[in-house]
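pinned: reference chain
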Amino acid sequence: MSDVYVIDTSALIAFLADEEGADKVELLLSAASRYEKKVYIHRLNILEIYYLTLREEDEKKAHLMHEFVSKLPAEILEYIDEQLIEEAGRIKARYNVSLADSVVLATASQKHAQLVSADRGSFEDVSKAGKIQFYWIR
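pinned: its structure tokens
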């Protein structure tokens, strides 16, 4: 197993809301803060946290969540380069996943990382294909 992880939106939500699996995300982030593991969060997942919080709460809370997630001990990936576009496009065309999920899956693939997620339902077909490793938090 790799010591490299990409955290998706469902795992971030579990962590932020202290839901089941939050402890697993916290352990990964703690290890990342000690440079024992490499953890990535794609900027698109921070966007999802922002708009989901805005939808459920208000702009002030959404802004606070954006700031908080941006300061977690993870490397924030800001890019979508040509290789990521094509890999995400292949994933989106083959599997029934959202655009943001296709990007986070492609990111995990490019980084040879485990995708940290609580969303087994969305990734069932991808998981069965066995090309991307998953770290399920619940």
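why pinned: The first helix runs from residue 9 to 16. The first strand starts at residue 4 and ends at 7.
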